[in-house]
Each structure stands twice: as structure tokens, then as C-alpha cells.
UniProtKB/TrEMBL annotation:
EC number: 3.1.6.1, 3.1.6.18
GO molecular function annotations of the record: arylsulfatase activity; glucuronate-2-sulfatase activity; metal ion binding
Known role: Catalyzes the hydrolysis of pseudosubstrates such as p-nitrocatechol sulfate and p-nitrophenyl sulfate. Catalyzes the hydrolysis of the 2-sulfate groups of the 2-O-sulfo-D-glucuronate residues of chondroitin sulfate, heparin and heparitin sulfate. Acts selectively on 2-sulfoglucuronate and lacks activity against 2-sulfoiduronate.
Organism phylogeny: Eukaryota, Metazoa, Chordata, Craniata, Vertebrata
Family statement: Belongs to the sulfatase family.
InterPro entries per UniProt: Alkaline_phosphatase_core_sf, ARSK, GAG-degrading_sulfatase, Sulfatase_N
GO-annotated cellular components: extracellular region; lysosome
Protein species of origin: Jacana jacana
Location in the cell: Lysosome; Secreted
A Pfam family this chain is assigned to: Sulfatase
Cofactor(s) this protein requires: Ca(2+)
Keywords: Calcium, Glycoprotein, Hydrolase, Lysosome, Metal-binding, Secreted, Signal
Protein name (record): Arylsulfatase K
Signal sequence segment: 1-20
């Protein structure tokens, strides 16, 4: 029984082929006012912390409140485990290969019509605060160049070594000041503006936490490798419940994992104590994030708006926090790709746990469904409303059923091959590049939730079926090769724009500590690649 029946897979493939047909829209009875919507999207929150057993490590009272008052998704995924491409998918409702938001520098075109634009056009008052990060042109030069040069035959550390930093004392509640200021803005807007509106509103709050903080000790082009909090939040963490992740030896690592671990500066020695602390500080940062969500919920309740507002909480991706000898995201492992998704509000089933696989592209059609706006035909996602109403049985009815898989993909820095992940049933299938030059990975999440055993060699028939399903969704070898061409083109025009300064500029990016040991070697590796 280790392999899902091939008949079942054949059905999946048929369903995959038909997944682009139109879906009926759920329209509430006429005359009922449309609910308002609040979306709180944070950064880097591991979705497994929102349900058992992950929720044993840290107290997240407002996430728990949302679970009691609404629905939690047990298998929600990012469509690309990095800030900008993930948000591009959430705001556009389209998979990453369709928007071509390949890296943190390349997001949506500024004139792209988002769900919020459509809601505004259809009578909603709209308001955004905080981190948006879905259009092109942000993030550092280092990020860009690292992404473009990932096919070059060299290994350079691009991040500071992950570390912790304790600030203030037990009275220090507001650690991440910028996030608290944006939370205050959202709260004030609810109290002063939303409360007087005669039409429904949609409010978006984007938070930076629990993303790690910059590490200036790593030089002028520092990464963000510092997990920082105060004793107030650290007290919310149950140290005894923190799992120390198992690591495979460096020689046994999948080649892409080795590249990621190395470029993220994680291949050195770490004591158990260090790893436990990094994880504890990360969980404390999650607790601070939860408190910001709490401020928004309390403001809605105080303004008498909670009962007529749909509240959605999610994140752009997770955080590995030293699982698989990595921190940050950019990986298809659960810590990085599994996101929180909780929804409460009018018509949404309370205390419901949804096992179906869903992903951030589902937010767009869900928003339109709530606002009763017909959805554009080409969207990659499906409305979550049938699941949220507790009508999962109807999902099987012909005409409107969501596929039994989700897709995530990654084309940015710290990973030296385009990566494609298909999650269906208990299986997670990860394919790379052209599907031939890098071995795939297959994990059974029911037997091996820590994803330590790659079963791809053991189940070749299953791998072939899953690969066929993946190719029915995206012609991934073609996408990988167009990303490779894009990277080379971008790099060459960047190099030309620098003229005589090229050698100096490239040496002093985030990898400067390694590069400067042998600049000639690394420059010639690039020339060879070009």
C-alpha cells in the first residue's frame, strides 16, 4: 500500500488535463450585503505552527482565536518560496511561470490588475498598509546578481551565519517597530474610517515579521540572518517542545540542498544549543507577529465590525530555522513552503480543519467570490469558499472541483536549478531544471514528515506518473531554459552598464568575504559561463 493506486493517478492526470475549464461562481442570495475583508499577510511564518504538533512550541493566542472562530487549512502552500514572486502569485492569482516573476527583483508589472483593483472597481473601499513587495525593481543588487549567476560553477557564501540577538528586557513588547507602526495605522483606520463607511471595505496589512533581521556584521552587503527578539516574547516559547532537526551528512545531501546550505553559510559546525536558540528566537518572533494580528482583530471587535468581516491570515512562505541545515526559505521542504492560512467571518464554518491542498493563488478567486465579482477565466487558483463553508462534499460535484494538487516553483538565488514542487495526497514530488540533469525528490509526508528519505529511486513508476502530471500543469524544462536565458541576458546587460567598475562592484557584493580570496578564479568562472 506504499504507492497510491495507479488507477487513482490516472484519474488525477485526467483531472489535470481538464483543470482549465470555467468554474461556476457562488453567489449569495440577493439583497444580502457583501462582507468586508481584512487580509493580514506576514512574512516567513511556518504554517505548521498553526496546528498540532507544531503549535506546542509557542503560544499564538490570536491564531488560536481564529481557529476557534473559523477555519484553518492544514495543507496550504506558497506558489514560490521567496518574498516577491510569492506575493506576485497572491496578488495576480497566477502561477510564477505565468507572471515570469523569476526572482526577488522581478515581480508583476505595475499596471497588473490585482483582486484589490477589481474589488475597488466593484464598489469596495480599499486600503493597504505595510509590506506589499509584488512589483518589479526592489531588493538589493546582490540578490539580483546571485540569482542571475546561480548556474556559474562556483560556491560562495551569500549570507551571514545565522545567529540570535536578545534585545531589551521583559517589558519590551514592541521589538519590530516598523511593523507595529503599520499595525497602528491599520487599527486607527478601522477605528476612524472603516467604522463610518456605508459600503464594504477591503483592508490589507503586510508585515515583515517573522522574517529574520539584517546582520550588519557581515559587511556592507549583509543578508538577513539574525533572529532577534526580547525576553517578553521568548517567554512565550516552550523550550522543551523544540525539536532539534536531523541533518544528513554534507556528502549525502541532494546536490541542490548542498548548494543552498553552502550559500546560506550553514555548512559550518552548529551546536545543539545554537540550533535550539535559533528556533526558539524564531518562534518568539512568530509570537510577536500573532500579537499584531490580535490588535487588528481587537480593533474590528471594538468597532462592532468583526461579525460582518471576513478575516484572512497568511504568509508569503515559511522559514526553515535550521531544518535541513538551512535557514531562510527558497526550498520546497515543509518549513519553507508550507504557509499558514486561517479564515473566519460570516458564513465560514467554525472550528474546521481543512485537509485539502490549497495555495496562495487561491486568494484571488476567493476575494472575488466574497465580493460576488465574476472571476477572470485564466486564473491559476480556485475559490476557497466551498471549503470555508464546510461544503467539501460539493467539491466532488462535476463542473467546479479544484484539482487534487498544488504547484510551487522557485527560480531565484541560493538554489542552483529551477525547482518545481507538486504536492498531491501524501506525496511531495520535486523536479529540477530540465528533469534530467538533477535527480528528483519524492517524499511521503505521512510516513516521513521531516522529509529525510528521498523515495524517488524506490518508486520509479510513481515518479513517472507524477512527472507527467507536473508536465501537464507546466512545461517545466522549457520554463527552466527560459529562466537560464533570462539570467544570462540580465547579467550581461548589468555587466556592460558597469564598464570599468565591473570587477570592483562584483567583488563587493554579499559574497565579498569569499570572492576577495581569489577574485581571478571567480571572474573566470563567470566568463566561462557567459
Amino acid at each position: 500500500g506504499g504507492v497510491m493506486g495507479l488507477a487513482g493517478l490516472a484519474l488525477l492526470l485526467v483531472a489535470a488535463a481538464a483543470w482549465a475549464r470555467e468554474r461556476p461562481l457562488l453567489v449569495a442570495p440577493e439583497g444580502q450585503p457583501r462582507p468586508s475583508v481584512v487580509l493580514v499577510a506576514c512574512d516567513s511564518l511556518d504554517g505548521r505552527l498553526t496546528f498540532y504538533p507544531g503549535n506546542k512550541t509557542v503560544d499564538l493566542p490570536f491564531i488560536n482565536f481564529m481557529k476557534r472562530s473559523g477555519t484553518v487549512f492544514l495543507n496550504a502552500y506558497t506558489n514560490s518560496p521567496i518574498c516577491c514572486p510569492s506575493r506576485a502569485a497572491m496578488w495576480s492569482g497566477l502561477f510564477t511561470h505565468l507572471t515570469e516573476s523569476w526572482n526577488n527583483f522581478k515581480g508583476l508589472d505595475p499596471d497588473y490588475v490585482t483582486w484589490m483593483d477589481l474589488m475597488e472597481k466593484h464598489g469596495y473601499r480599499t486600503q493597504k498598509f505595510g509590506k506589499l513587495d509584488y512589483t518589479s525593481g526592489h531588493h538589493s543588487v546582490s540578490n539580483r546578481v546571485e540569482a542571475w549567476t546561480r548556474d556559474v560553477e562556483f560556491l560562495l557564501r551569500q549570507e551571514g551565519r545565522p545567529m540570535v540577538n536578545l534585545r531589551g528586557d521583559k517589558t519590551r513588547v514592541r521589538v519590530m517597530e516598523a511593523d507595529w507602526q503599520n499595525t497602528d495605522r491599520a487599527v486607527n483606520w478601522i477605528k476612524e474610517e472603516a467604522v463610518n463607511l456605508t459600503r464594504p471595505f477591503v483592508l490589507y496589512l503586510g508585515l515583515n515579521l517573522p522574517h529574520p533581521y539584517p546582520s550588519p556584521y557581515a559587511g556592507e552587503n549583509f543578508g538577513s540572518s539574525t533572529f532577534l527578539t526580547s525576553p517578553y516574547w521568548l517567554e512565550k516559547v516552550t523550550y522543551e517542545a523544540i525539536k532539534i532537526p536531523k541533518w544528513s551528512s554534507l556528502s549525502e545531501m541532494h546536490p541542490v540542498d548542498y548548494y543552498s546550505s553552502y550559500t546560506k553559510n550553514c555548512t559550518g559546525e552548529f551546536t545543539k544549543e545554537e540550533v535550539r536558540n535559533i528556533r526558539a528566537f524564531y518562534y518568539a518572533m512568530c509570537a510577536e507577529t500573532d500579537a499584531m494580528l490580535g490588535e487588528v482583530i481587537s480593533a474590528l471587535k471594538g468597532a462592532g465590525l468583526l461579525k460582518k468581516t471576513v478575516v484572512i491570515f497568511t504568509a508569503d512562505h515559511g522559514e526553515l530555522a535550521m531544518e535541513h541545515r538551512q535557514f531562510y526559505k527558497m526550498s520546497m521542504y515543509e518549513g519553507s513552503s508550507h504557509v499558514p492560512l486561517l479564515v473566519m467571518g460570516p458564513g465560514i464554518k467554525e472550528q474546521q480543519q481543512v485537509p485539502h491542498v490549497v495555495s496562495l493563488v487561491d486568494i484571488y478567486p476567493t476575494m472575488l467570490d466574497i465580493a460576488r465579482i465574476p472571476a477572470p477565466r485564466n486564473l491559476s487558483g480556485y475559490s476557497l469558499m466551498p471549503l470555508l463553508r464546510g461544503k467539501a462534499e460539493d467539491e466532488a460535484s462535476p463542473g467546479g472541483s479544484r484539482p487534487s494538487w498544488v504547484l510551487s516553483e522557485f527560480h531565484g538565488c541560493n538554489v542552483n536549478a529551477s525547482t518545481y514542487m507538486l504536492r498531491t495526497g501524501k506525496w511531495k514530488y520535486v523536479a529540477y531544471s530540465d528533469g534530467r540533469s538533477v535527480p528528483p525528490q519524492l517524499f511521503d509526508l505521512s510516513e516521513d514528515p521531516e522529509e529525510l528519505t528521498n523515495l524517488a529511486v524506490k518508486f520509479p513508476v510513481l515518479v513517472r506518473s507524477l512527472d507527467k502530471l507536473l508536465r501537464a500543469v507546466v512545461n517545466y524544462p522549457e520554463v527552466s531554459s527560459s529562466v537560464q536565458e533570462y539570467n544570462k541576458r540580465q547579467f550581461m546587460s548589468w555587466k556592460e552598464s558597469l564598464g570599468q567598475n565591473y570587477s570592483n562592484v562584483i567583488a563587493n557584493l554579499r559574497w565579498h568575504q569569499d570572492w576577495l580570496k581569489d577574485p581571478k578564479k571567480y571572474e573566470s568562472a563567470i566568463d566561462k559561463w557567459l
